[in-house]
Amino acid sequence: MIKVIMAKIGVVTCQILELEIAHVLSNDPDVSEIWVVDDEFSKELTTELENAAHKPVHRVAGVEEFPTEETNKLAVLVQVLEVGLHSNIPNLTRGVTTAVEKMAPFVDAVLLGYGLCGNALNHADDLFKEIPVPVLLPMEQEHPVDDCVGLIIGGREKYYAEQCRCAGTMFMNSGFSRHWEKIMSVNIPEKLIPKKDKILKRLMGNYKRSLILTTPVLGESKMRENIREFNEKYNLKTDIRPGTLTLLENAWEEVKKVARQEDSRVQPDQQLP
């Protein structure tokens, strides 16, 4: 007799997608309990889950506190990594792979809340070949999404179309609208901080607009409020385009399927005569 265990899934994500990940987990009736590595980067995701999930949310100091016993439910372990790692490709690659390595012994599969991100996670098969469980990126047809913008805008064609419409576009998903100050400052060396505003205005000189990508996780009015100072500082207009959670939701359904396959097995004490 085969006992199908609902499985344990790990999620490693950037702060940029904190609201989207919280939305997917909160609204999935299959998810029974959620554990979140509790640190400065996970605060917003944890708060969102506690307010919206209507299921147990546990704060833990590290992945090793995730329960190891078997379960007939779907349990999820989440770690949120610092926004801005993408500014240095080796740092992003190292940060994500390290997080996955630590999480893998405790779960049946891992979903990454990332895209290729400047090819930091390109050749994922090689990056994670030593990981004993499947590691999945959100996909658009046969290839991983390019980044968090490609994920929320709905793929490469839509991404490219907006770049053609206006090359000087700052794409605003919910995370960018919430964390833009840190993202804009992350590449400024400490010795140049006094000249930060001048440097950033020069870098932003060719940008013309902020394109808000609306989804159910954050309303248009709140996103407009979040980026008002950004637009005023860099003299940008605001355009609106519907975003989508479909690619992320598809990735979640795929990792659930893969995790269940990994954790569906015959145990000696479960086999009946």
Give a concise summary.
The protein has 273 residues and is of the alpha/beta class.
Q: Could you explain how this protein is built, in words?
A:
The longest helix has 18 residues, at 246-263. The protein is built from ten helices and 13 strands. It is globular. It folds into two domains: 3-145 and 246-270, Rossmann fold (3-Layer(aba) Sandwich), CATH 3.40.50; 155-242, no CATH class. The chain has 273 residues and is of the alpha/beta class. Strands 4-3-5-2-6-7 form a six-stranded parallel sheet, with helices on both faces. A three-stranded parallel sheet has the order 10-11-12.
Secondary structure blueprint with pairings:
Blueprint: E1 3-4, E2 8-14, H1 18-26, E3 31-37, H2 43-52, E4 57-60, E5 74-81, H3 89-103, E6 109-113, H4 124-127, E7 135-136, E8 139-140, E9 143-144, H5 148-153, H6 156-165, E10 169-172, H7 174-185, H8 196-203, E11 209-214, H9 220-234, E12 237-242, H10 246-263, E13 264-265
Helix pairs in contact: 1-2, 7-9
The computed structural class is alpha/beta
Q: Determine the number of helices (DSSP H or I, runs of at least 4 residues).
A: 10
CATH class of the largest domain: Alpha Beta
Percent in strands: 15-25%
Task: Provide the gyration radius in Å.
Answer: 20 Å
Q: Count every beta strand, where a strand is a DSSP E run of 2 or more residues.
A: 13
Order of helices and strands: EEHEHEEHEHEEEHHEHHEHEHE
The CATH topology of the largest domain is Rossmann fold
In this structure, how is the largest beta sheet organized?
A: 6 strands, parallel
How many domains in all? 2
